[in-house]
Each structure stands twice: as structure tokens, then as C-alpha cells.
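Collaborator request log, item 7. Partner lab (contact: R.S.) asked for a structural prediction of Phosphoribosylformylglycinamidine synthase subunit PurS to inform their binding assays.
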Amino acid sequence: MARVVVDVMLKPEILDPQGQAVQRALPRLGFQGISDVRQGKRFELEVDGPLDDTALARIHELAESFLANTVIEDFTVKVEEVKAEAGK
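Returned to partner:
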């Protein structure tokens, strides 16, 4: 089994009100030196079977057509190593 991570972020030119709200709150919470915050989404997909170029292309298609609004969002697709759970 493989894990594929799709990270979706607003494009840099798109206003991020949630990120701005977090950024404004940080100094009040004692966190200094953070000049910008952007909020995004992370999808972790567990893939059964081999993770070949065809499977990755299908996941890219899934991200582009369903997980991200490509008009206002960018996304990245990366394969992440799955660590075995203790006791298994």
C-alpha cells in the first residue's frame, strides 16, 4: 500500500482571509516573527496495489478535477512513505 498526499493551496494572488485571521491572532498568543500565513487543505490517499505512472496520473486527474478548484487553487501530488504500525 502506498500513500499519496495532495496539498491544495490558494494561488498567491488570491486573498486568504482565514490565513490573515490566523496571522493577526499569533502576536496576541505570544508567537512573534510570523510574517504571513496561508491556509490550505491536505488529502492523504491510501492506494491499493502498485503505484505506477498510470495510477499517479489518475490521482493527478482526481486532484485537478475534484480536490482543487484550479481557477483559484494550486495543488501538488507527492508519494509519502507509509510506516508500518507497531504490532503489525
